[in-house]
């Protein structure tokens, strides 16, 4: 596409050069023409760049709409994608030993305390950085559709946003993404209100890790995972 503009420039340049005298002082082209000429070429290049950008945008749009229709297809054919049984606590829940964490502030803030119904001190990390996680081991691959989180009921500590990783092997967990982007879920805004996030697409995994991204005062949280 852009070559045609370049070619035009080169041909015009050759044409005007041929018209000039040997010492280059007596060109039939007026200075005004030369001015127009030098302006035209950069404009063509700009137009070219815009055209290229538009083409790449159109390409990206096509890819996106393809992905969206694929996802719509998945949603339409899967009835289990919306199941919402609690997988951490309750009748189908897991034991305390199946809940682990990167760090704990001390044993009175251990990972087992992450359960959503805990009105006391929940899980609190020892280290405040983005490498902290709390992990749920479901014992077998489970369909996961949603996550609920809550803050520390007995103190103003909560997790404002988080990412998740999942998989069937703890040393090969995948970062949860949607349309090739890491998803940062909006977490809590106070100590008590539970915030539920439905995953933009369900996942099947034995392990799920919540990685707090941003937090209020300290990384402390309660959580539940839903699916079937
Ligand atoms: C909270 O959930 C756990 C796990 O299901 C259960 O053992 C515990 O009794 C519950 N606590 C309350 C106060 O409901
Ligand atoms: C985990 O294993 C199940 C059952 O084999 C499979 O359907 C699922 O895709 C696996 N999950 C991941 C993240 O590899």
UniProtKB/TrEMBL annotation:
The keyword Transcription regulation does not apply. Residues 1-22 form the signal peptide. The keyword rRNA processing does not apply. Keywords: Signal. It comes from Lingula anatina (Brachiopod). Residues 83-228 form the F5/8 type C domain. This is EGF-like repeat and discoidin I-like domain-containing protein 3. PANTHER family: F5_8 TYPE C DOMAIN-CONTAINING PROTEIN, MULTICOPPER OXIDASE-RELATED.
């Amino acid at each position: 596409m852009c070559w045609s503009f370049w070619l035009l420039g080169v041909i015009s340049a050759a044409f005007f050069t041929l018209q000039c005298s040997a010492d280059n002082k007596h060109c039939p082209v007026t200075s005004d023409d030369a001015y127009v000429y030098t302006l035209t070429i950069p404009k063509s290049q700009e137009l070219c760049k815009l055209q290229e950008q538009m083409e790449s945008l159109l390409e990206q749009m096509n890819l996106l709409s393809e992905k969206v229709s694929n996802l719509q297809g998945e949603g339409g054919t899967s009835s289990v994608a919306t199941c919402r049984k609690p997988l951490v606590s309750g009748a189908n829940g897991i034991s305390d030993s199946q809940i682990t964490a990167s760090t704990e502030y001390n044993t009175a803030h251990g990972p087992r305390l992450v359960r959503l119904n805990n009105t006391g001190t929940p899980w609190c990390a020892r280290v405040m950085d983005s490498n902290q996680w709390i992990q749920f081991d479901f014992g077998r691959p489970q369909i996961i559709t949603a996550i609920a989180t809550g803050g520390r009921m007995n103190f103003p500590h909560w997790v404002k946003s988080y990412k998740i990783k999942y998989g069937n092997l703890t040393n090969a967990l995948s970062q949860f993404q949607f349309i090739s982007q890491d998803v940062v879920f909006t977490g809590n805004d106070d100590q008590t209100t539970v915030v539920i996030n439905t995953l933009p697409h369900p996942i099947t995994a034995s392990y799920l890790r919540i990685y707090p991204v941003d937090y209020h005062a300290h990384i402390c949280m309660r959580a539940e995972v839903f699916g079937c």
